[in-house]
Give the backbone structure.
Amino acid sequence: MALGLLFAPLIGFWQSAQAQFPPCPPPSANEYLLLVRSNTEAERTRVQNLLPSNSTVLVCDYLNDTVVRAGGFTN
């Protein structure tokens, strides 16, 4: 029990440290999204470089996963 009390503050710190990106916004009307799970900055950069330049790209949190969200697709 004492051990649990000792580590309880660390668990809260760890959870807040993971929430570094904002929640992903929903798509606009008639918009399709592409969500790509990305755990590292290198993965995020690679995905962003592969997407069309006219897509709206941001890094966000979707269901507790960090994803690259690409929007602006209509078909």
